[in-house]
Each structure stands twice: as structure tokens, then as C-alpha cells.
Write a sequence for this structure.
């Protein structure tokens, strides 16, 4: 009996997200090395041949999963930063932190695979760096837009400030997850830390 590649063994039709959700759950629970194609197929309610036909081998499936999580996160960042582009610093700090902590809360498996997952080859690690660098670039642009409205001018230090903000957010978020803490409270704490650090900067010595 043949099974249409878009149909499960039970006759339920599914799209690629169904397969990726199943793969994400298995990779998160088992780790990349221990995860098996048969486990992913079983969780998705489909067959190994269907998975191979739709998504490729295990490494390719893993990359599909991580890429999808990266795209979701990038879109959340873009949406949040668009909302925050003309906000004062107190509000901007909260908005700037929101995508990462929301991602960790609402897509915990995706967060762990994207930011904390096993490094299998160079491509996942490269993708992670691209995501962090992309967020840093977006935040740099947001800080520069804010300077146009509220000042002061940070000059070439805007990107360093953005990198510091992203680093703080990731460290606080991961620490909170490891300790089983409250992500909403951690987001507020990280935002206040960044806001206070910004206020305490000596712009006269920073600006070229």
C-alpha cells in the first residue's frame, strides 16, 4: 500500500510544520546524536520514507527545524523592534527584550535547539551566529533611530551597546531557564539592567 507523501498512516493530511514539530520535539527530548528518524516518523504519525522524501536525512531535518525556529524568532524581533523604534528608553528596553523571553516561554523546544542545541557540524553553529548577529544589527539600527528622536549620539558605539544588550538578554534568559525561574520577571530585570547601564554611560567619553 502506498501512502501519499502529504498523508499520515491514519489518513490524516499534514503539512511540513507537522513534521517539523515532531522533529523538534524528538531532537529536544533525545538530543541530536540519540534522535532517530523512526522516532520522528512515529511521533508525526507517518513513515520513514515520507520523512526522507519531504525533509531529507537526519542532519537535513535538524537544519530544517533550526532554520524554521530562526525565521520565527527573526520575525518576532522585527515586529517588536518596529513597535519600539520611536519609544523612549524605558519602554524600548522592555520591547527590545520581549522577543527573546517570549520565544523562550512560548517555544521552549525551539529556543533550546536554536540557542543551546548540540553543535552538529558547522551549519547549525553558523546559523546561530547569524541569528545573534542579525538581532544585534537590528538593535543597533533601533538605537540609532532612537538617537535621532531623543539623543544622545553614540556614534560607532551603538553596535557595541546593542551587542551588550543581546548578550545580557541571552545570559539572563538561559540562567532563568536553568534555575526554573520566572521568565517574565527575568525579562523585566534584564530590561532594567540595560536601561540603568545606558543611563550611566558617559557619552562624552564614548562618542568619537
Amino acid at each position: 500500500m502506498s501512502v501519499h507523501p502529504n498523508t499520515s498512516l491514519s489518513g490524516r493530511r499534514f503539512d511540513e510544520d507537522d513534521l517539523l514539530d515532531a522533529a523538534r520535539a524528538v531532537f529536544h527530548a533525545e538530543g541530536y546524536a540519540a534522535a532517530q528518524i523512526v522516532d520522528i516518523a512515529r511521533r508525526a504519525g507517518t513513515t520513514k520514507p515520507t520523512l526522507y522524501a519531504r525533509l531529507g536525512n537526519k542532519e537535513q531535518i535538524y537544519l530544517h527545524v533550526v532554520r524554521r525556529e530562526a525565521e520565527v524568532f527573526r520575525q518576532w524581533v522585527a515586529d517588536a523592534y518596529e513597535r519600539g523604534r520611536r519609544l523612549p528608553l524605558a519602554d524600548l528596553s522592555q520591547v527590545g527584550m520581549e522577543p527573546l523571553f517570549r520565544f523562550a516561554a512560548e517555544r521552549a523546544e525551539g529556543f533550546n535547539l536554536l540557542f543551546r542545541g548540540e553543535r552538529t557540524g558547522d551549519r547549525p553553529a553558523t546559523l546561530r551566529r547569524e541569528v545573534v548577529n542579525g538581532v544585534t544589527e537590528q538593535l543597533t539600527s533601533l538605537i540609532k533611530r532612537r538617537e535621532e528622536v531623543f539623543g544622545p549620539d553614540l556614534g560607532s558605539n551603538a553596535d557595541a551597546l546593542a551587542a551588550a544588550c543581546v548578550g545580557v538578554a541571552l545570559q539572563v534568559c538561559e540562567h532563568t531557564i536553568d534555575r526554573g525561574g520566572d521568565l517574565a520577571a527575568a525579562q523585566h530585570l534584564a530590561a532594567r539592567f540595560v536601561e540603568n547601564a545606558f543611563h550611566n554611560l558617559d557619552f562624552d567619553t564614548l562618542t568619537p
Q: What stands out?
A: DSSP finds ten helices and no strands in the chain. Confidence is low (pLDDT under 50) at residues 1-5, 7-11, 202-208. Residues 101 and 187 are 6 Å apart (CA to CA). The first helix runs from residue 16 to 30.
